[in-house]
Amino acid sequence: MESSYYSTFILTILLAIGLAFFLRAASKDRTTIVDISSPLPPLDVLNGISNWLEERGWRREGGDADRKVLRFNGRVSSSPVLAVFLSILCGLGGACLGLVICQLYASLNWWPLVLVLLGPFAGFFYRNRASRIESLEMRLVSKVNDKKSQLRIKAHRDELIAIEAELAENLQLASDGSLTSSPI
Questions:
Q1: CATH 3.40.50.300 fits 32-77+133-175, yes or no
Q2: Which parts pass through the membrane (predicted)?
């Protein structure tokens, strides 16, 4: 019977490791660089993207005229539902680990059940890591006087997907399509 407790203990530890990796991945920086082109003049494309970003709450933080760069900053908030879910998940995992330890080491009495108190720390950790200031940087690759636009945008992957989905038709934007075709 003791061997089944050890295997349950090992599986519970593996679940805890999986939760730790999930917490890390949920708050990971996913900044990506994408090249976008359009047959429209560069000023029309830059103004269209800039206005769209400002409507979504991004603030213009200046740029570099020599390098033809515009910078925007925006506050990204964490998901309260995911924070609560992770807290519950971690609390249940701590309770399970505590119960297994109680079975394996009966001399510890009920003390391993204190691991259930780790639950709120998972939500707190996620909330602090996922809430941050994101930046978006647009660099005009083509010349300002050209009839076609070539941009290089560096931003969070989700924001680039939103730009591609919402502005592609109006501004006739084209990219390699790797953002919307990848499985992640």
A1: no
A2: 6-23, 81-101, 107-126
